[in-house]
Amino acid sequence: MPWEEWVDENGEIQYEGVSFINPVVISTILCNYSKLKEGCYGRFEGDTWYMMEDFDRLVENSLADYPLYRRIVEYKIDG
């Protein structure tokens, strides 16, 4: 499915596909982080590997100035 994103008539962002804008997607990744990383390890041809790389980069960049939030995310990932 191709990625698609647009702003609707109410000024809200709408999207189709998997998006890091969607809190359900982020929660699902956090709850299943270890399994996802393990499952895609070394599989550079798969979308999951790239999704996890992008997620890791997003977390790293977004939480660089917020060590407490970063620690909370680490605790969530570790269970």
Mean pLDDT across every amino acid position: 86
**Given the helix and strand composition, which structural class is it?**
mainly alpha
Largest sheet: 2 strands, antiparallel
Q: Helical content, roughly? A: 55-70%
Gross geometry: globular
Quaternary organisation of the protein chains: single chain
Unreliable runs: none
What's the domain count? 1
User: How many DSSP-defined strands?
Assistant: 2
The sequence of SSEs as H and E is EEHHHH
Instruction: Enumerate how many helices there are, as a single number.
Output: 4
**Spatial ordering of strands, largest sheet:** 1-2
- The share of residues in extended strands comes to 5-15%
Termini separation: 32 Å
Rounded radius of gyration (Å): 14 Å
Labels describing this entry:
two-stranded antiparallel sheet, 57% helix, 10% strand
Polypeptide structure, described:
This protein has four helices and two strands. The protein is mainly alpha-helical and 79 residues long. The chain has one domain. It is globular. 3% of the residues are buried.
SSE inventory with pairings:
Layout: E1 4-7, E2 13-16, H1 23-31, H2 33-40, H3 47-62, H4 67-78
Antiparallel strand pairs: 1-2
Brief rundown of the structure:
57% of the residues lie in helices and 10% in strands.
